[in-house]
Amino acid sequence: MTYTEALNKIHSLLTFGSRPGLDRVRELLRRMGDPQDKLRYIHVAGTNGKGSVCAMLSAILVAAGYKTGLFISPYITDFRERIQINNAMVSEEVLTDAVEKTFPLIEQLRAEGIVITEFEYVNALEFYIHAQAECDIVVLETGMGGLLDCTNVIRPPLCAVITTIGLDHTAILGDTIAAIAEQKCGIFKSGSLAVTSAQCEEAMRVIAGTAAAKHIPLIKSSSVSLELRDITLGGSEFLYQGAPILLRLAGDYQLENARTALAAIEVLTLNGELDISPEDIRRGLFNAVNPARLETLCGSPLVLLDGAHNPNGIGALKQAIDRFLEGKKILCVLGMLADKDIDSALRLLDGVFEAIYTVPIDNPRALAPDLLAEKCRSHAAEVRAFDSAELAFDTAFERAERENAAVLVCGSLYLAGSIRPYILTHVK
Fold first, then answer.
1. Distance between CA 116 and CA 333 in Å, rounded?
2. 363: closest CA among 314, 413, 410?
3. How big, in percent rounded to 5, are the helix, strand and coil portions of the chain?
4. Cα–Cα distances in Å, from 184 out to 81, 146, 387?
5. Measured between alpha carbons, how far is 329 from 42 in angstroms, rounded to an integer?
6. pLDDT tens digits, residue range 69-123?
C-alpha cells in the first residue's frame, strides 16, 4: 500500500455528520487490541484555545524528555499533523503501515453493518500509532464536545483540561453555554484531575459542579501568575515564577492559554506524575507553534492568517486587531462555513475592514461567496465575491502593497489550511 492509497482509504469513510456514541469505536479498538489502554493522557476539550493549549503542553513535555504523542484536529496543511510524536508528524511510512494493518477491520465491521466514520478511524489510528511507538504520554484533543466524542474511550487521564467555552456546534452540543459545558465536562473521570481556563459564570458553574460530583480536584488557570512585560505580533514576553518566558504565539488570549497549560503542568508536577523543570517550561513555551492562529506570513505588506470561526474566536481576533493594527487599513479575505454563527461574527467585525473579499472553501458545509458577500455588505464599504481564494488573496496583496495596508485571511481553519501553502510560496 502506498501513502496515497492509505489516505484514500481514510478519506473514503463517512466524513461529515454527527455520529454520537462510543460503541462503534470501542468495538474497533477491541479488535485492534485496545491500544488506548496502553497510554497515559492529558485530555483537552473546549470551544476555543484547545489547539494552542495542546501545542504548549506537548512542547513542554518534549522539552522535559518525555516521548510525547499529540492528537489534534483539524489539520492545517498536511493530514499527518493530526498524529504527531515529539512535535513532529508521523512519517508517511508509519501512517501507511498502520492503515495497512488496521483497515481490514473497518471492512470487516462494515460487512457486519457497523459503519466507522473517518474521525473515529483516525482517532483509532492515533491510539494504535502512539501505542506502537510506546509514547510516555499523549496530549489528546477532543474533536467535538467531550462526553460522546470518540476520544473519550480512554481510561481516566492524568488530567482533563477544559479551555474557554462558547457557542459553537450548537445543533449538536446544545444551544446554551450550560448545555455545551456539560458536554465538554464529559471528559471528567473519577480518579483524575481537572483544570479549567477562565470561563463565564454559566460555564464555570457547570464545570465546578461536575468536578465536585465526580470528586475531582479542580484547578483554575487563575492560580497561575504571569507578569506581562511585552506583547507584539511576534508573541508575548512575561515573567513566570520570576523567570522570563518568550511565547511566540501572538494575541492576548494566548496568555490565558499559557496559564491553562501551566496549571496542568504545575499540578501534575506537584503530585509526582511529571518531572518538569523551570527550564523545560521556558524551552517548551518558546518552541510551541500553532499555525493559523494570528500567524504572520509576511511582514511587508503585513499578511496575517487566522482560523477563528465562532463568536468567541472572532472576538479574540477583534481584540488582537485593536491592539496590533490600530489605525491600519485592513483588507480581509473571508470564507466561512454555513453552519457557523456568521451574523454574530460579522457584527463583532463591523467597520473593521476597508474591504472584504469573500471566497469559497473546499468543504460541503461552506457558504457560497456571493451569499457570504450579501451578509457582509452592511459591515464594510467595499465587498466583493471571488470564485477563487487565491485570486482574492492576490488582489488584496497587490492592493496592500500599493496602499500600505494589511491583509487578513480569516473565517475558517479549512480556508487557512488550503490557502496557507499558496501564500507562503507567493509572498516574500
1. 36
2. 413
3. 45, 20, 35
4. 23, 4, 37
5. 42
6. 999 988 888 999 999 999 999 999 999 999 999 999 999 999 999 999 998 999 9
